Structures are given as C-alpha cells and as structure tokens.
# Entry
Amino acid sequence: MVHIKRIQEEGADIIAVIGEIDASSSIELDLAIAKSVGEGFRKILIDCTALEYISSAGLGVFMSYIEELKDKNIPMVLFGMKEKVANTFSILGLADLLYIKQNKQEAKTLANELSV
Amino acid sequence: MSYQYNIGCSLNNLKGIREFVRHSLKHEGVPEVEMSAIVLALDEMCSNLMIHAHHCNPDHLLELHIDTPSKGKLIFEIIDDGSVFDINEFLEPELDNLIHQKRKGGLGIRLVKAIMDNVEYLRRDNKNVCRLTKEIKP
# Structure
C-alpha cells in the first residue's frame, strides 16, 4: 500500500510517497504527478524519504513523465531515497535519466536552477 | 529448506509474495540491498504472470516455491498452468524508446535479468515451471 501526501513549499509541489509502490498501487503515483502538472506547478519534488519499496510499475510512471515534463520545462527532482530503493533505480540506469538528490534542500536548489 | 506459498492472481497479493520471500530467506544471511533486489525480482515475475498469463483472475493460482539447497544458493520456482510467458524470448525495449513512447511497462524483465543469475522454463506434471536461480556471494 502506498500513501501519498502533497505539500507546497516555495512554489514547488512536494509529493511525498509513503510505503510501497507496486503494480497494484503505481496508479496512485501516476495520478498525483498528473494532478500536480494539471494544477500548473512549475517545479515538482518527489519526497522518497518514506518510500520503502518500488517495482518497475512505479519506475515506469517516472519514466513516462520524462518527456512531457521536459517539453513543459517542469523539473521533477526525486530526493531522500533509501539505499535499497536507490539500488532499484541504478540497476536500470535510471539514475542517469532522472534527477535524483540526497535531500530536500539539494532537490530544491536543483529544481530552481533547472527552472530558470 | 523448502518453502511454498500459493497465491491467487490478484495484484493485491503482491505484498504477500514479498513478505513470503523475505520471511523464507531471513536466515540465509542475504544482505539487505540484495534481499530487496531478490524480493523485487519475484514481485516482477509474479506480476507479469498475473497480468499477461492470467489477466488478474484471482481464481487462478500461482505456486511459489523457494529452495535453499546449500549455503548461499537460492532456487525460486513459480508454477502455473496459464500460457507461457518466457522472458528470455521477450526483446527488452531500449530505455530511450520507453521514454519516447511514454510506456509504463517493459522495465520489469530488465530488472529480473539483471538481478537473477539464471531464468529458465520447464514443464513438470503438465504445468509451467519458471525457475530462477541466484547465488549469494559470501
């Protein structure tokens, strides 16, 4: 089960993903990002601090937004991943395709730089 | 040791599969990051079968077997009687194509092949057996 919370800080929409994302729950993540884009946020941060698990269904959601967000010039930065979660991204080489930072401050800084 | 778990083909049961794998391997000395990768590979294989071979029909069953014949050697078998979904015959899409086509699938197979040492398919008692093997290096 996954639980998703959204908070707004300094013009960025922060989507906190809590729990586990698999094929049964990846739709929740998809909807949250779609909502954020639909509401017109110019910066999206994904808080992975409490993300315990992600399968390819969840990774696929992030992948599917890469092009759209690039076209719309909306940076999406993930942060706070536990090692076991980060490992899943790096097995596939997604760490090179997505913006991933250690903590919220670094993620905000990068999002600000990218959105200029 | 041998462990067995039977599950209906509902994606809501994936969590149970992950817990079963973790529980079965908890005394095998598998490091945490490797354990998470193994759990992920089994989740991917079972969800693929549930979706592609069984159309998420919860009345269809998968049998998951785990064998640990010797220290560090792990054998997983997923047994079902649906159509065979052989990941070795599936051409992995390039990551660039996935991004371009905004496809959400196709990554799972890549993960399984990267995590497991071997994936093979056999027939036993008129059923499909997908066998995954993994050796944990000391």
